[in-house]
Design a protein that fits this description.
single chain; about 160 residues; mainly alpha; about 70% helix; globular
Amino acid sequence: MNIQLKPLVNEQAKLDAHIQSQHQVTYQTTREKRILALLVEVGEMINETKTFKFWSKKPSAEKPIILDEYADGLHFLLSLGIEIQSQKMIYEIQPLTLSLTQATIIVFQHISELSKHWHIKHLENAFQAYLNLMPLLGFNSEDVIEAYFKKLGVNYTRQQNAY
């Protein structure tokens, strides 16, 4: 399974430009905050799955809620990719034999590496690890792309309403 990011990158660049003009910020002045936001969004997404909550009997959130949280993380990865000028627009989703918990820890590790060493290889490793979560979550590329565009609309509405 592949995912084509070019249409998402184009739209993310427009959203980023809008936010930058409205809030007088740049990619450089917001890099650390976007990396932290990405970590938070990954945490929010995995929290909804309950996969690590061995102490809880509550079921996972419904798939649309998890997908919405996943799309939030995708927004920040795309934004970071634009800043670092990644040209990689097609990723092949790798089938994993890891648990969702293990795979998520790997995502956090790659994001941490990106934070410590701002380099395109770390961004692309983080992106690949994040996209590899898709099958473990029960999503395909069409689900993710649709969720991204749905959240894009929400994000524009939030900007119009001084979110």
